[in-house]
Amino acid sequence: MPPEDVDTPLSDPGPGPATGPVVPPTTEPVPDPSPVVAGHAATAGSAPALSVRGLWRRFGQKVAVAGIDLDVPAGSFYGLVGPNGAGKTTTLSMSTGLLQPDAGTVHVHGQDLWASPLQVKAMLGVLPDGVKLFDRLTGEQLITYAGLLHGLDRDTTAERTRDLLTAMDLTADKGTLVVDYSAGMTKKVALACALVHVPRLLVLDEPFEAVDPVSAANIRDILASYVRSGGTVIVSSHVMDLVQRMCDHVAIIAGGHVLAAGTVDEVRGDASLEDRFVDLVGGRVSGEGLAWLRTSSD
């Protein structure tokens, strides 16, 4: 049976096939995208940080992702937005090797993810949705463990762990077990683990969910600095204003398709990003059927 929320990835199926995935199980029509189409081209002469072609994923009879094409330019701050169940998490999970696609290809800085999973995953820093951590470690131990797993020496790992604990405002809680962290603290320590090895591409699924405003502002500053230094960030979010202020590129996904992609200014046109999103996705309803929901001074 398909899961209730098709936007939630399954467990890691392993490194996947060494050759290209199979032909899509269906040939359902893909709607024509808006004039700012999916697959915004990267800067001439450089490989995109992430390039996906013909990405498909089905859960039972439910098609979660239906032939997505997308290019994320190197050095960009890329927002991925869409309604619940749009296929964002499934797309990001397949793009980072957490979920095997039914069809399609994924290249990270020109390298085929499924042909060379170990080499490609070494370039990635990932904060997945519903992250599961070794929560019987302390925050300090968890970041240290992540650094050592990525092959950093102990001195470098210790230095970066201290810096990340400070940046995430977790120094006072470094000796606390992660199982006792709040939801926001857990999100921050998971982000620290994704950053410790200085990845070339950082993929974050709802990184600001449950994070307090001060910590969120600090994290935005960290990510902006990372992009200025040459890194690439992909972030999914439901908060249109946040994406509009933070990102320079954006893709709107709904029903497993990319409806529009490009720079934020190209996609939103003369409207706000939220208005453009609603126009493309549809589904807005009025409250006229709730005439009984009125207050009265009588």
Automatic annotation (TrEMBL):
Compositionally biased residues, Pro residues: 12-34
UniProt entry keywords in alphabetical sequence: Antibiotic resistance, ATP-binding, Nucleotide-binding, Transport
Sample GO molecular function, one term: ATP hydrolysis activity
Protein source organism: Cellulomonas biazotea
Region (Disordered) location: 1-40
Top-rank taxon, per record: Bacteria
Record's bilayer topology term: Peripheral membrane protein
Cellular component, GO annotation: plasma membrane
UniProt domain ABC transporter: residue ranges: 50-280
Identification of the protein by name: ABC transporter ATP-binding protein
SUPFAM superfamilies registered for this protein in UniProt: P-loop containing nucleoside triphosphate hydrolases
InterPro entries: AAA+_ATPase, ABC_transporter-like_ATP-bd, ABC_transporter_ATP-binding, P-loop_NTPase
CDD domains, per the entry: ABC_DR_subfamily_A
Subcellular location: Cell membrane
Swiss-Prot/TrEMBL GO biological process terms: response to antibiotic
